[in-house]
Amino acid sequence: MNIITPTADGSNTLYNETIGEHYHSKHGALQESKHVFIDAGLKFASSEQSEISILEVGFGTGLNFILSFEYCSENHINLDYTSIEAFPLTTEVIEQTGYAAYVTEEIWSDFISNYDNALKTQQTLSPLCKLEIPYTTLAEFETDKKFDVIYYDAFSVQHQPEMWSDEIISHACSFLKPGGTFVTYAITGKLKRAVKANGFTIEKLPGAPGKREMLRATKGG
Ligand SMILES: C[S@@+](CC[C@H](N)C(=O)[O-])C[C@H]1O[C@@H](n2cnc3c(N)ncnc32)[C@H](O)[C@@H]1O
């Protein structure tokens, strides 16, 4: 059961009763998404690029996706977005988040009208945006494709430690192109070591409100 809950910046998040955790920061869902994934991830990786491929771990409500879709549309960047989700929400729950207010009507309607089909196969939402939401766990996810950016947005290590094991981090990192960018809201010594072991250089960046630091890592090779 997921319960809609307001966060400190006025945007909503969901509280997942089974896991015992919110989908976003209680200090501000919208702020966190913009700070960690759009600013430190997408804007950083797409400067001077006309196309970008993103792999997200944990599609959830689609907040990171709609903000990415809008940013790429405004900046004429071709977006190829794949987001792994083991427990997809219903369209009804996603609509209750109120996130329609944060993007244009057109972006929201392109997203909502394609969401169910994107769980089955890749959908073309606009001339500049493709979306696919593989309905699987990260551990079982396989593809020959390599991505420019990974948004690692799993539930926290306290609530889902298996999503932060060295093996699963290494599995996720294997889908990134050389020179690609890995971003996540979290930063621990164990995570830094796991990412470094896969040939990444790491940066500690200021975290979203409520978190001192976050991790951005660049794949070598
Ligand atoms: C922190 S939330 C993601 C929030 C999301 N990015 C958003 O913008 O709403 C974590 C997500 O990971 C999903 N998840 C949990 N276990 C997973 C697994 N083993 N593989 C892939 N996704 C998983 C959850 O269902 C949830 O949607």
From TrEMBL:
Pfam families from the UniProt entry: Methyltransf_30
Which organism is the protein's source?
Pedobacter ginsengiterrae
What is the primary gene name for this protein?
A: mnmD
**Cross-referenced InterPro entries, in alphabetical order?**
MnmC-like_methylTransf, SAM-dependent_MTases_sf, tRNA_MNMC2
Positions of the MnmC-like methyltransferase domain: 108-219
Spell out the protein name for this chain.
tRNA (5-methylaminomethyl-2-thiouridine)(34)-methyltransferase MnmD
| Domain of life of the source | Bacteria
